[in-house]
Amino acid sequence: MKLHHDISVPQLVLFCGRTQENVQYLFDYLNTTEPSREFFGLLHKTVYTKYNAKPYRGYKLLQKDQELAEIKRVKSEKRPVWYILNCTANEFPIMIKSLMEIKVFANSMKKSTEALKHYGLDIIDLMTNQDKSGTSLISITAVFSLIVATQIALIDILKAVGIVPGGVIGHGVEELLCGYVDESLTAEQVILAAYWTARTLEESKLEAGTMVDLDISWSEVQKCCPKDIFPSRHLAEWYVTVSGPKNSVKNFAEKLKEENVFTTEVESHGYALHCHHMHAVTESLRRNLEKS
């Protein structure tokens, strides 16, 4: 006799077995009884069994007057690993000191340091003389160089333990790291490109700029942005970044705050990154990259 589960909240059931019949037998059994929540908890532990031991996986949704279930044979394949590389330096100084105990990491950082010594920037010294707050990282050149050198070293560690990524995504200056991961660029080329990207900005005479994250949609920000402020990053459905002149962005953010829109300033070291302001330095950057 089939039992209709009269429950207000549908119960999801997960189970795996050696054969399809094995899983189906359990699902049929659930039509004749009302097990406790603890029983379902025990069932769900089976999904942690290795694929080659129990290749048939199924789910069943117990709900009133309706049945939804599916059983499939899954292949024993490794799930791909993706590298997500983002440009942030909040915890780097403290983290790097601990990672320097790993030989692969330390050797990689030393190579990056050697590549930049000619330009008067010592990555190791920059890292070891940091206080815990990281307040001495005031130069965008120092920040970019340290971030990229650290992530090169992290990639080297992953490579050393045999991890091969199925894909890689880079954000901002970290797009350079994508070239290192797929071996189209060497570590030295990447660290020099990061260094010159930042140094070119420092040597430019760009108007003081800033960036602010806003808790509004991309379509909304496009409608309300003043002419000299530009939507620059579409981070999520309701989370975007705008870039532009420092005073204009500050006034715009204050206005949105009054309308109860969440805003937070992005540490961009006085530059309106990710917008057309950067066009003014492209030619200088090209020349610097060519001579390096």
Automatic annotation (TrEMBL):
Cited SUPFAM superfamilies: FabD/lysophospholipase-like (SSF52151)
Protein's GO biological process: fatty acid biosynthetic process
Keyword annotations of the record: Fatty acid biosynthesis, Fatty acid metabolism, Lipid biosynthesis, Lipid metabolism, Multifunctional enzyme, NADP, Oxidoreductase, Phosphopantetheine
Keyword Transferase (UniProt): no
InterPro entries found in the cross-reference section: Ac_transferase_dom_sf, Acyl_transferase_dom, Acyl_Trfase/lysoPLipase, PKS_NRPS_Biosynth_Enz
Domain Malonyl-CoA:ACP transacylase (MAT): start-end pairs: 95-290
Keyword Oxidoreductase set for record: yes
Pfam families, sorted: Acyl_transf_1
GO molecular function: fatty acid synthase activity; oxidoreductase activity
Protein name listed in UniProt: Fatty acid synthase
